[in-house]
Design brief:
Distance between the termini: 24 Å
Order of helices and strands: EEEHEEHEEEEHEHEHHEEEHHH
Number of helices: 9
Radius of gyration: 18 Å
Helix content: 25-40%
Shape: globular
Structural class: alpha/beta
Oligomer: single chain
């Protein structure tokens, strides 16, 4: 079982240009997209979050169930669902403004334990910013790591939600001893400061950096760097691409029996290159269609 911990929300995606373009609601949130992508790839997956009982919350759970994701541990609340209004630039990249005050997902509380058979837990995005839930997710991360569970972190920076950038950067560094695999975008890396080598020294066994259409690179503790180019595709938008990479990495590591820091160290160049190419191919498929629509396993056969 791979557990994905974090927010589920509704993206409002413009269907034209200008401030008054019509908005189409779509299921979203970095952790939510990661869980759906894992389920579509065929990995046994559970979602750990707090979801509203409103109509948006119900359709979010329907989307998880449709991907085969276990939602039995999802907390529920009467508060509204978080909304993220997307803006798509001419290159298909998305930026967001958020409506988060008093919403259900930020009131998450740490569960008493993880599902039986949990091999990995994935964290990231808004859920590690918005209190009081952020502290609860942080507690879960530290507890899982202390129990020897493989942990992944994708900070997926949303600067507009972070009132004190320096405080967040310090908090990010405090998570690293509890992180097995750190994945982040080039933009996130620039915003956070530091280098892959500095982050590796603090805890993770590997750091994967996504570079948009230029592909992905991994930095490992032994000083190795492996990279692959991006898959060529007609980009519709990039919503969910990074989340698809998260899922593809976790799915690929699970299939290789490599959900441990020691196993990451023994992957070698060939193992990493295969894994990164798989993740790049999965992300390209997501970018080729509107919204966060990650691929199914059959679309990646071969």
């Amino acid at each position: 079982m791979i557990v994905v911990a974090g927010e589920a929300l509704i993206d409002l995606v413009p269907q034209g240009t200008g401030a008054l373009a019509g908005l189409l609601p779509a299921r979203g949130g970095g952790p939510y997209n990661t869980a759906v992508a894992l389920g579509r790839l065929g990995s046994p997956t559970a979602f750990c979050s707090r979801v509203s009982r409103d109509a948006f919350g119900e359709t979010l759970l329907d989307g998880l169930r449709g991907a085969g994701v276990d939602v039995s541990g999802v907390q529920r609340g009467t508060e509204p669902t978080t909304l993220a209004v997307a803006t798509i630039d001419p290159h298909g990249s998305a930026a967001y403004s958020f409506y988060v005050d008093g919403t259900a997902d930020r009131l998450f509380t740490a569960p008493g334990g993880l599902p039986e058979g949990t091999r990995a837990v994935s964290f990231g995005t808004c859920s590690l910013v918005l209190e009081p839930g952020a502290t609860a997710y942080e507690e879960l991360m530290r507890t899982a790591s202390a129990q020897g569970v493989f942990t992944t972190l994708d900070p997926n920076i949303r600067a507009g939600l972070i009132p004190d950038a320096d405080a967040y950067r310090a908090r990010f560094k405090s998570w690293l001893p509890s992180v097995s695999l750190l994945k982040l975008s080039e933009e996130d890396a620039l915003w956070l400061g530091g280098t892959p080598r500095e982050w590796l020294a603090a805890g993770p066994a590997a750091v994967v950096i996504t570079q948009g259409g230029d592909g992905l690179a991994v930095f490992t503790r032994d000083g190795s760097v492996h990279s692959v180019p991006g898959e060529k595709v007609d980009v519709v938008d990039t919503i969910g691409a990074g989340d698809t990479v998260n899922a593809a990495l976790l799915h690929g590591l699970s299939a290789r029996g490599a959900l441990s820091c020691d196993a990451l160290a023994s992957l070698g160049a060939d193992g990493w290159m295969r894994l990164l190419r798989f993740a790049a191919r999965a992300a390209a498929i997501t970018c080729s269609r509107a919204g966060a629509e990650p691929p199914y396993a059959h679309e990646l056969d071969g």
